[in-house]
């Protein structure tokens, strides 16, 4: 063999450390999950060796007999999962999926409505620092000041005023159900295309815990690694009339060779998500989030919008401790083995690097089998750390308790 015979211990030891970190800490980042060994087997397979620019039966290189079958299975499975006409499983990420849709269906300078970043939207929904905001004329809608829900009246008013070519729904930090029906009505009223970015909630949709936007939207994009629990990557499903333009935009418009090993992992995940057990899992994610939100509320934390209906919640730290920033809270919790991310709350006076809030998600802890009683324990562990982020002895004690809790729910 021409390959080195000695393992690359620099890397293998770090992978071992990461396994240890994932096994012994609480993973509460709302966009993460523990993917299955079957998915990881596919992603770590010889499929990584194959170049396959193009699409099944229309490739630019030879030798694609096997990967053609794999990509076809992935496309067929995801169409069945969501009831879609067409699918493109090649986007390397959710950001590329969104960009591919814009490239397919918009011209540079077109007007688009998207949820503002500081109210829970994604960078690719028109942030000025993202290509979406630089190439297209995005206008932001937001949440109501009163109950922090999507402001559909404002969305309609902005749509009537700006006559956008596309309305983008979906969020990265919004704890409520997004009903696609009224957004479709607004799109129809102004003649706009409807893109639903389901990156965070694709697994909840697949599991029947959230409404399916596919019958309403022209195009639905999502990532495969969040609630859907597949490999890291993106996907697009669409109405048949948009399929050719989307395929052309992803390749050759935006990407080169597809990652067929990841596409195989996506195919495995789509099959896993079609099982009745995955429906139970999706419902438990939501039940766990509700239990965790209740327990945090009882301990003095304000929940943005008053609670959650999905896999995540945003807590506004200011009712608990006016001086405590999201940044300091994230760091102290990390020291205690509780991993989550700082997040702005709506109209946050602090910068996105500091923030007044935290985003907390339950997909990972639900995968490892935790239920409502463990959510109460997690709220208590978090409260012990956040009561005094300078108390290193208490943080060390919580680290031990986190390790003990996780040892009852082994992952890998
Ligand atoms: N990084 C993802 C998230 O955490 O929501 C969005 O791209």
Describe what you observe in this structure.
- The structure is a single chain.
- The chain has 412 residues and is α/β, with parallel strands linked by helices.
- It has 2 domains: 40-273, Type I PLP-dependent aspartate aminotransferase-like (Major domain) (Aspartate Aminotransferase, domain 2, 3-Layer(aba) Sandwich), CATH 3.40.640.10; 276-407, Alpha-Beta Complex (Aspartate Aminotransferase, domain 1), CATH 3.90.1150.10.
- The chain has helices at 9-24, 37-43, 65-82, 94-105, 131-135, 152-162, 180-190, 202-206, 240-254, 260-273, 276-298, 326-335, 363-367, 372-386, 392-407; strands at 26-27, 54-55, 58-59, 86-88, 111-115, 137-141, 166-169, 193-197, 219-223, 234-238, 302-303, 312-316, 338-339, 341-343, 357-361.
- The strands form 4 sheets. It has a 7-stranded mixed sheet with strand order 4-10-9-8-7-5-6, sandwiched between helices. A 4-stranded antiparallel sheet has the order 11-12-15-14. The protein has a two-stranded parallel sheet with strand order 1-13.
- The longest helix has 23 residues, at 276-298.
- The protein is globular, with a radius of gyration of 22 Å.
- The two termini are 31 Å apart.
- Residues 31, 94, 122, 172 line the site of D-serine.
Class computed from helices, strands and strand pairing: alpha/beta
Provide the succession of SSEs. Answer: HEHEEHEHEHEHEHEHEEHHHEEHEEEHHH
Total number of distinct structural domains: 2
Rg (CA only): 22 Å
Overall average residue pLDDT: 98
CATH superfamily of the largest domain: Type I PLP-dependent aspartate aminotransferase-like (Major domain)
Shape: globular
Tell me the major beta sheet: 7 strands, mixed
Q: Which CATH architecture of the largest domain?
A: 3-Layer(aba) Sandwich
Annotation field: number of helices:
15
Please list the strands of the largest sheet in the order they lie side by side. 4-10-9-8-7-5-6
Number of strands: 15
State the end-to-end CA separation: 31 Å
């Amino acid at each position: 063999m021409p390959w080195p015979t000695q393992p690359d211990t620099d890397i293998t030891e770090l992978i071992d450390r990461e396994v240890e970190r994932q096994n012994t800490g609480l993973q509460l980042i709302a966009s993460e999950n523990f993917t299955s060994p079957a998915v990881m087997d596919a992603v770590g397979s010889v499929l990584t060796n194959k170049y396959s620019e193009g699409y099944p039966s229309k490739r630019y290189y030879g030798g694609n007999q096997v990967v053609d079958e794999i990509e076809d299975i992935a496309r067929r499975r995801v169409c069945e999962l969501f009831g879609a006409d067409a699918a493109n499983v090649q986007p390397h990420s959710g950001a590329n999926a969104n960009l591919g849709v814009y490239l397919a269906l918009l011209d540079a300078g077109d007007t688009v409505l998207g949820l503002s970043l500081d109210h829970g939207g994604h960078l690719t929904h028109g942030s000025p620092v993202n290509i979406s905001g630089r190439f297209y004329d995005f206008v932001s809608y937001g949440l109501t000041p009163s109950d922090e829900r999507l402001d559909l009246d404002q969305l309609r008013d902005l749509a009537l005023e700006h006559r956008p070519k596309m309305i983008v729904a979906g969020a990265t930090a919004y704890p409520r159900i997004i009903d696609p029906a009224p957004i479709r009505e607004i799109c129809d009223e102004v003649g706009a295309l409807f893109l639903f970015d389901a990156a965070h909630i694709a697994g909840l949709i697949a599991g029947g815990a959230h409404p399916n936007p596919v019958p309403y939207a022209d195009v639905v994009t999502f990532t495969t690694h969040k609630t859907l629990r597949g490999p890291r990557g993106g996907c697009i499903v669409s109405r048949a009339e948009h399929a050719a333009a989307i395929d052309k935009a992803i390749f050759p418009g935006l990407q080169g060779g597809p990652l067929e090993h990841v596409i195989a992992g996506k195919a495995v995940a789509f099959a896993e998500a079609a099982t009745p057990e995955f429906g139970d899992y999706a419902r438990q994610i939501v039940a766990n989030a509700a239990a965790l939100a209740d327990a945090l509320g009882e301990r003095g934390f304000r929940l943005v919008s008053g609670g959650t209906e999905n896999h995540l919640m945003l807590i506004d730290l200011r009712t608990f401790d006016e001086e405590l920033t999201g940044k300091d809270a994230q760091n102290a919790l990390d020291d205690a083995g509780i991993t989550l991310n700082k997040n702005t709350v709506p109209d946050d006076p602090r910068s996105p690097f500091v923030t007044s809030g935290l985003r907390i998600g339950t997909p990972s802890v639900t995968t490892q089998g935790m239920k409502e009683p463990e959510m109460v324990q997690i709220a208590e562990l978090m409260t012990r750390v956040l009561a005094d982020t300078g108390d290193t002895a208490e943080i060390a004690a919580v680290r031990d308790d986190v390790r003990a809790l996780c040892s009852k729910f082994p992952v890998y």
